[in-house]
Design a protein that fits this description.
The complex is a heterodimer.
Chain A (H helix, E strand, L loop, with lengths): L2 E13 L10 H12 L10 E13 L3 E5 L6 H9 L6 E7 L2 E3 L13 H12 L3 H15 L14 H13 L5 E5 L7 H16 L3 E5 L3 H7 L2 E6 L2 E7 H12 L5 E3 L8 E9 L8 E3 L4 E9 L7 E8 L4 E6 L12 E9 L6 E11 L2 E15 L33
Parallel strand pairs in A: 3-7, 3-8, 5-6, 6-7, 12-18
Antiparallel strand pairs in A: 1-2, 1-4, 8-9, 10-11, 11-13, 13-16, 14-15, 14-17, 17-18
Helix pairs in contact in A: 3-4, 3-5, 4-5
Chain B lengths: L5 E3 L13 E5 L10 H6 L1 H16 L8 H19 L10 H23 L1 H4 L1 H6 L6 H5 L4 H18 L6 H32 L2 H13 L14 H7 L3 H13 L7 H25 L3 H4 L1
Helix pairs in contact in B: 3-4, 3-8, 4-8, 4-9, 4-10, 4-12, 9-10, 9-12, 9-13, 12-13
The chains are: A alpha/beta, B mainly alpha.
Chain lengths: 413, 294
Amino acid sequence: MNNVIELDSVGKRYRLGEHYGEGADLRDTLAGFARRLRGAARREAQEFFWSLRDVSLAVEGGNALGIIGSNGAGKSTLLKVINGITTPTEGTSRTRGRVGSLLEVGTGFHGELTGIENTYLNGAILGMSKREIRARLDEIVDFAGLDRFMDTPVKRYSSGMYLRLGFAIAAHMEAEILLVDEVLAVGDVEFQRRCLGKMDEVERSGRTVLFVSHNMDAMARLCTTTLWLDKGQIRGIGPTATIIEDYIRSTAAESTALVVEVDPTLAAQVVGVALVDAYGVEQSVLTTRSTGWIRVDVAVNESVPGLDIFCSVQTKSGVGIIDEALSDRIDAAMPATGRYRLQCELPPVLTPGEYVISVWLGTTYEHLEQHDAVVAFSVEGDDLGRLHRLVKIGSNWKADRIDEPSVDAGGSG
Amino acid sequence: MASSPEHIGASTVKGDADQLPWIVNTSSARRWPSLGFGQLWTHRELVFFFALRDLKSRYKQALLGVAWAGIQPLVGALTFTVLFNRLNDVEIDGPSYFAFALLGSGVWGYYSSTIQAGTTSLLANSELLTKVAFPRIVAPTATFVPGFIDLAVATVLALVVNVAMGGGLAPLRLLLGVPSGVVLLVMAVAGPVYLFSAAVVKYRDVSTVVGFGMQFMLFAAPIAFPPELVPGGWRTLMYVNPVSGAVGLLRWALVSTGIPTAAQLTTSLASAVVVLLIGLVHFRRREREFADII
């Protein structure tokens, strides 16, 4: 009887197209009316999209539940319903205790206010009392490492400082339920390490963590149970390792290339992913000796400063082998609007087997898109009988003799 | 498919969450929602921080800073005095038309700027609205606060001018008139703010209409001129806008003019209460969809 989250046939419906409702302004309303007079597209405004449908769930206190699913599977909507940001269209969601979130670190900061002022403001927005914030202020400042900058307006902060302060505040809120959505996709390594550490700590203290991520390794480490959402419904729930394997197997359909239609409402999007050989020809099979290229086409519809992509390769059971960032090699590769073709070298290091390619698009502070296991390929060839390795590096060797060279080195004993 | 709840986790850890009450987020809306006063009280600190944010950001990087709070009503009062008192020989029953106009200008400044800021308060916080689950009613309510600085400055100026012109101080009037006038003034802005801020989430034009409306309303209330300038029947009608009652009470307390009649005050109070109730109910009914349509 110690559930802290209960969802009872929860559904959330959004309107497609004219998504502000029956009409965003008078002109839209009149235009819609004129269309109806002409008898055209009568039901156009009635197109709905169920972001969640018939989701029932009970989570006991003190557990970490992972949530996976492809883009648009309803993961963020689920968290928004649990958090109370949005109201379900059907069903009921109940939570017990304060719900904290690492969803939107630093949301609500005001540039003109100082670090201290923003700490109080942000804390109050998250539901902390003034007394609570005052009691934790030193800890927060310490954690953020911004001692000398707390009296500076945050508009003078670097984006990293901004993120650190936001995270420090959110992390010091005493919440019975902590929601974490893709924070591991943003920030630097140190920041990500802190996020993971904090989640560990929260879980150990008997509170509840809901963790949405595409980072399967982190999920396997933190969550014993994982929920798989697919098109707004629960596709599976169970031990994390099993669910991840099922998920990857299902998404890695035999597709050898991903093609997405351009959606001008997105700031930036991945419109194509394929594996190609050195001649630019699409391939689904590589040999252990051939170099491949992961080719990603990106449509930038509005300029996004710092836009970056990550290309990763996993085995079919979800073990990450390669994860490379565009920004490691090229700065500001996509500076303006337009279409870009980005190619990431895949050196001949993979051993024979089945693999999938995943692509992440975003900036240091914002997660835009993740395409899990969108392209499947296999590597063929022989690996000299060595079955217990994931990669063949072809390491260099050095051979030196380090005892006294004896006179007859080749002598038999 | 999943109609029976999936159950997670063995009952090994027993959190202290057991004693806490359930917070319910459900699809079925209540036809008559609570008015949200309880929420406002528990989140009064957040109201304060929102207000503080707006105040601080308003005066930062402004050369004259808080001095603007005095300049605005002075300029307004000068215009009213020249237009009505000097050019058209309008007289009042107090000693100084300028003090009378100063107070009117200050009250009007509060009324119009608060309603306009309040109307766009949800839009201004739209990022927060879609990402954090704070009580929605806090955002419009916080806009009632910053205007008090300007109002206080105008009030003190009016009082000083009035005394200098031989008006004298009446402690009892101050004690009765100032609090009741301020309460009526806040009620006068609260109703429209709740109503318009919720409406503007869906229809952005509302804020433009409110801007136009304010220009017209200035001359439909006894702000720049005394109520006696308007013939009998129309005079009572003016008090349907509660700002008329509020400015009357404040002038009675501060610049030695006569008190509005009981009928006029009742009209203002009743109208303020009715509009406030309509505004609150509308807001509470609509707030469930703010995050989805803003």
